[in-house]
Design brief:
Length: 319
C-alpha cells in the first residue's frame, strides 16, 4: 500500500467523480522546494519568506531576495509557486526592523501591516518578486489582510513598481484569509485578488480568540470548529462570485480527517508539508466530491469541533 501511495504521488489527484484537487507544498527555502518536487507536490502553496529575514543583522537586499526567489522557482521545474510576503511582527520578532513593542502583538503590526509601517521593506520584496521569472509561474500572497483597503494598497504599489521596472507581465496576486473580517468580506477581496488562501492557524486563533502560542489553550484550538467551517463556506462562496479559487495553507490542510470537509466546502487546493503530499493525494482519490458537498452542509449546524469530528469520522472513515 505504502509503495503504491508513493508511486502515484507524482500524478495529479482527482476525486472518484473526476474533480482535480491541487496538492501543494508549504516550504521555507530552496532545499524544501526540491523536497516538494521529490514528494510529488503539484506546486508550492506557501513559501514562508521569513527564512530570508530572520537570524541576520539587516534586511536582505532586493538582489539577494531575487536570487533566493529565483532559486525556489527554478527548483520547482515548471511548477508554480506561491510566495508570501514577509509575515513578521507580533510574536515573530526581527530586531533590525525596530518595530515598536506592543501590548497585544497578535493584534498589532503583523503581516502586511509591518510592510505598511516599513514601506521600503515591502517595496524591496515586491520588486524582487517582480524580477523573478517566469511571472506566469509565480504567485504573490499577502498575509494578514483584513479588508479590501489592505489589498488595494499593496496592489497599487505593485503596479507602480512594475511600471518603474518596465515589467509588463505581473504575477497573480492572492490574499490570505486568516482574519475573520477577510473571510466575511471574501466576495469583495475576490473582486480584486486572483485567488484566496485560507490560513487556518491564524483564522482559528482569531475566530475563537484563543492564542495559538499558549499551550494551556491548545486543546480548544481546533480548526474543525463549526465557526471555522462557516467562515470557510463564506470564503468559498465569496470567491465563487468572481470565479476565483480557494486554497488552504494552514494546518487544517494537513488534517486528513478535514480533507473531505474542506473539499465539500469548495476548497480546490491543499498545501501541506512535502512529506504529507503522497498520503493526502491518496486520501483525495478516495473521496467523492458530490458526496462531500452534500454531507458537509449539516456539519455547519453542529455546536462543537468534537461533534464535527465525530460525525466526519462516521461519514468518511479512513482506511
Ligand atoms: C496560517 O495562519 O494558517 C498560516 C499558514 O500562516 P502562519 O502559520 O505562517 O502564520
Ligand atoms: Mg498566519
Amino acid at each position: 500500500m505504502l509503495e503504491q501511495v508513493k508511486r502515484k504521488a507524482a500524478e495529479p489527484a482527482q476525486t472518484l467523480d473526476g474533480h482535480a484537487i491541487e496538492v501543494a507544498a508549504n516550504i521555507a527555502n530552496e532545499r524544501d522546494a526540491r523536497e516538494a518536487v521529490r514528494c510529488g507536490a503539484d506546486s508550492v502553496g506557501l513559501l514562508r519568506s521569513e527564512f530570508l529575514f530572520i537570524d541576520r543583522e539587516s534586511a536582505p537586499t532586493r538582489a539577494e531576495q531575487q536570487v533566493a526567489y529565483q532559486a525556489v522557482l527554478d527548483a520547482m521545474a515548471g511548477r508554480s509557486a506561491i510566495m508570501r510576503t514577509l509575515d513578521v511582527g507580533g510574536d515573530k520578532d526581527v530586531p533590525y526592523l525596530t518595530l515598536p513593542p506592543e501590548d497585544n502583538p497578535a493584534l498589532g503590526l503583523r503581516g502586511v501591516r509591518s510592510g505598511f509601517a516599513r514601506p521600503a521593506l515591502l517595496d524591496d520584496q515586491l520588486a524582487a518578486l517582480l524580477a523573478t521569472r517566469p511571472a506566469s509561474k509565480l504567485r504573490i500572497l499577502l498575509p494578514m489582510v483584513a479588508d479590501v483597503a489592505d489589498l488595494l494598497r499593496v496592489k497599487t504599489r505593485l503596479t507602480e513598481l512594475a511600471a518603474e521596472m518596465g515589467v509588463d507581465e505581473l504575477p497573480q496576486l492572492g490574499v490570505m484569509i486568516e482574519v475573520p473580517s477577510a473571510a466575511m468580506l471574501a466576495d469583495q477581496l475576490a473582486e480584486h485578488a486572483d485567488f484566496l488562501s485560507i490560513g487556518t492557524n491564524d483564522l482559528t486563533q482569531y475566530t475563537l480568540a484563543r492564542d495559538r502560542c499558549n499551550p494551556e489553550l491548545a486543546a480548544g484550538l481546533d480548526h474543525m470548529h463549526p465557526a471555522l467551517l462557516r467562515l470557510i463556506a463564506q470564503t468559498t462562496a465569496g470567491a465563487a462570485k468572481h470565479g476565483r479559487w480557494v486554497g488552504v495553507c494552514g494546518a487544517m490542510a494537513s488534517d486528513l480527517e478535514a480533507a473531505p470537509v474542506l473539499i465539500g466546502l469548495g476548497v480546490t487546493e491543499l498545501s501541506v508539508s512535502p512529506g504529507l503530499v503522497p498520503e493526502l493525494k491518496a486520501r483525495v482519490r478516495a473521496l467523492d466530491l458530490a458526496m462531500c458537498r452534500r454531507e458537509v452542509q449539516p456539519l455547519l449546524q453542529l455546536a462543537s469541533a468534537a461533534e464535527v469530528r465525530a460525525r466526519a469520522r462516521e461519514i468518511w472513515p479512513q482506511a
